[in-house]
């Protein structure tokens, strides 16, 4: 084979691959370029000019509109639902499991799966416009019990947050150890709604938990963390005379915020706070709640220990929080119930409350 | 020289008597792994058919006008593969843009098809058998439809058998092979009716 | 075998650090579809169905729930259920299970633990998790554990 033949072969190959690459890059330019598109939110209340081609969730996030989402755009949590009236295209295979027939009628879509290709009309709850992102300083990490830590997260100087007591924030972890990607999880705010320069979260270590392990073993005072929020519709309605509050473990967080909210606003509601735990070492914030009880007669604190140890010398209520609830709450008349705790506790308490005449309209809890 | 066979005969033959899967056993990978559900199997079959028609047509042109004149036959494999890969990519982008409905159904299957041996197989058969353009086009379409038919049949049977009481050793790929074998025997009954080369 | 494109998001969610810290695969290098098939054969040779296994697991967890956080004596098993806030998504995207751990000790002092998600994964998907995953259960051992007196 002579030199010319080799050259010819190489030439043909080069020519073919070069022309194919040119065709592909032209196709990409032409086909994958959706240009600027307009997002119309809530019937013209807000109009955004955005660059097409990414998911609706991330497009909205880059416009500082944060849709709550717990899985980070992997179509596993089904929380990032948004009503898209126009311009979303057909429902995708990945969305199907999360959209009920009812939601299909309202044009609900998972915003992490919908790609922004053309002008869209969206309906987004007004509350979501308050949601912002903060890079916070970890000012304090305190052990509240053997498995619950309190985080004091200071907002950047000059920035403030306004949230309703009871709402939650999303906490983003940085990659660590085997975890290669950022993940985020939701935690209720335990600090007072009147303290606008920081938020406090109570985080209990969950075995095999990504975010809680990060907080308990990796995070140090002085670190920076990313938060977004506030989210959630767990907040005070107050259309009643008495508030029944029930919490277990780190579920104390939003209740603490709620109690301070009622007191600081000078609201007249009576409050009874049932706090369930196993043994004395699971209890925390005891002195603080005892003090509030002393200062404000409208508030009553009822810690219940299911199985106090002998050395605990427990003199308070012994038994499950459900038992105390059944004993001490007579009826749902003029009352609202605010619950935060593990799913089993929620189910058991809701059952008791319903027997007492509470309804779905007077029982509130976070569903995440 | 192109063989003197009616393109319609080639079309029918490639669906039934020389079915890509059941006579040639090509494209088995995706045939076995994507046949557990009828709905997805159907989508993949559709995508394979579409890609087969387009690639045979384009590869025929590439072969006749780029490979034959300089007599560089040993380049055909690499060039065919590059053309198929590029075509699939462009097809996916185009679908996403202009027919989002279709993309939602077929989009996830397209990348899988790039490396499906049935696609390259059809192109190579076309070259070996010296088909002309029309013959190639119908051969591509027929082979695609044949592949689609075969995977749909397997998926339907597998769905029916999913809840059947079977010996544990037979479940999974073993069962698929047995079903495919029986189907292949049935299809072999057609062989010899038409000559295609 | 080639991967079914529908499985790609599942494979993704099974990895460590996506839904849980350690993921669901452990050090297992088999595709999850293979694990499911291998375990189905193991379970069948032990003579039990997924339904029987998961019904029993759910029954024990339910028994343990009568006293969350403390050991409960039930049919010769000592069961401790621990609950945490929130729910965990199934990697197959069809369920959200409460974060709940069940630890069981049988009469012979053997110990096994599972989560509500483990029960769902086995019941709905026949998936006992990869070897080395913190909640991997060997189907034959689990069956023996649950059903021998």
Protein architecture, described:
The complex is a heterotrimer of chains A (368), B (197) and C (149). Chain A has 368 residues and is α/β, with parallel strands linked by helices. Chain A has helices spanning 3-31, 56-62, 101-105, 210-218, 252-264, 286-295, 321-328, 343-355; strands spanning 36-41, 46-51, 81-86, 108-110, 120-123, 132-143, 148-154, 168-173, 183-188, 198-204, 224-231, 242-248, 270-277, 299-305, 317-318, 335-340, 363-365. Chain A folds into three domains: 36-128, Roll (Ubiquitin-like (UB roll)), CATH 3.10.20; 131-231, Elongation Factor Tu (Ef-tu), domain 3, CATH 2.40.30; 242-365, Rossmann fold (3-Layer(aba) Sandwich). Chain A has eight helices and 17 strands. In chain A, the strands form three sheets. In chain A, strands 9-8-11-6-7-10 form a six-stranded antiparallel sheet. In chain A, strands 15-14-13-12-16-17 form a six-stranded parallel sheet, with helices on both faces. In chain A, helix 7 (321-328) runs parallel beside helix 8 (343-355). Chain A is elongated and about 100 Å long. Chain B is mainly α and 197 residues long. Chain B has one domain. Chain B is built from nine helices and no strands. By secondary structure, chain C is an alpha+beta fold. Chain C has helices at residues 8-14, 32-46, 50-64, 116-125, 139-147; strands at residues 71-74, 77-89, 96-105, 111-115. Chain C has a four-stranded antiparallel sheet. In chain C, helix 2 (32-46) packs parallel to helix 5 and helix 3 (50-64) runs antiparallel to helix 4 (116-125). Chain C starts with 7 loop residues before the first helix and ends with a helix. The model of chain C has no long low-confidence stretch (mean pLDDT 88). The interface between A and C is large, with 39 and 34 residues.
